[in-house]
Amino acid sequence: MKIFAITTSMNTSVPDPGVTVLCIYAFLLLLIFLSIKKTEEKRNFLDFTETQQLKGLSVLLVVLEHLRDYVVEFPSYMPRVGPWGFAVFVVLSGFGLERSHKIKKLNLGQFVRKRLNRVFVPYWFAGTLFIVLDYFILSKIYSLSFLVRTFMGINFDVPANPLFGGIRWFIMFILFYYVVFFISTGFQKKITRILILFMIPTLVCFLDPVYKSLGFEPAHQNRFYSFFCLFPYKYYIPWKYFFLLFPVGCVLGMNFESIVKACEKIIKSKIKIAFLIILSILVYIFFSGISAYLIHSYYLNFKIPIYYKLIVSIVINLQWIFSAITMILIFNFLRLFSLHSRFLSLTGLLSYELFLIHSVFMNKYDFIFFRLPAKYAFIVFLIVMCFLAFCLKQASGFTINTVSSLNRKRL
Questions:
Q1: pLDDT tens for residues 39-89?
Q2: Domain residues for 403?
Q3: Phi first, then psi: what are they for 365, rounded to 5°?
Q4: pTM score
Q5: CA atoms of 141 and 364, how far apart (whole Å)
Q6: Three-state DSSP class for residue 35
Q7: CA atoms within 13 Å, Cβ hemisphere of 344
Q8: Does residue 225 register a pLDDT over 80?
Q9: Per the structure, how many domains does the chain have?
Q10: Nearest in space to 275 (alpha carbons), one of 340, 44, 283
Q11: Distance (Å) of CA 352 to CA 119, 123, 197, 403
């Protein structure tokens, strides 16, 4: 019996894509609303429950984005929601890292160990699974240098059948910001830390000689995408879309108490939060329109100075910053009614693991979409991915605890 449909190209034939998309969105909304419950415990702005739900929604939006890319034959039927999810996920990553740093400052060894446990252990487990599947099903053998680079998180290239289904770039993206963050912690003054957090990503993204000397932006590359990609078009790594988001999250974490104190009356008022949500959406639309105009101008005039590229990218980053602000405000609005979704809390708990594995089983090892109509297959797919993500999280946790226990016994 055929277990997987091995796919290498995007988009499969989906009858009635409009109806399929509506059914998928209706299913997710139904899960969210049916799992909403009222809690009696006191909740705070951007507390653990709120950030977990935001992460849960973020990873679902990324899954829908890849569904649009890999499954729905006519992607125009599905809006691009992935950047909304990714934006808030990156902001929360910076925010969470800064809050942890304020609670307990770590030296280099402790910092690296914590990042290994959180990021690399699940990544290594998932990578090992995909290597085994590629070997036994595709008879694919990767070179030792490729495997070493991949397992170190150094992902400059991608093979024809990507090992992680096209999400390897995120590991390098987040590791880069971890390095920048740790460098910033070596300075006491807040303003110095903020400058480092913003200036290093800006320099890395916009010094033309750097990425051209590394072979980026080849001549055959599409001019539109060459502006936004730090790496070749075939890898499509839109660092410049999001290079300000992690620093923004860190700044939010640095000044969180001050912001909450200054805005205490606002974040506790349902009417004021509703007004801010509307205002944030309008600002997002404004920057979306400006960025679309500037991108069009760039496309018509390829030979433009780098400062223009920087301006356009800053505008695009502002667009996604306000999309993240909008989502944070919406969840704060729900918090004021003491409401939270258990389904989003679950997907938030498994968000990183879901992010790691879902794309491979959607665009390479399809086990369900070739069997059933997409509107039914997606339900099965999500259930199986949540189960696999849970197993991955448990395996990672067990490994980390076992190693920690052995190290304690040695001491």
A1: 877 888 889 899 999 999 999 999 998 888 887 765 566 778 888 999 999
A2: 5-410
A3: -100, 70
A4: 0.88
A5: 16
A6: coil
A7: 26
A8: no
A9: 1
A10: 283
A11: 8, 9, 23, 21
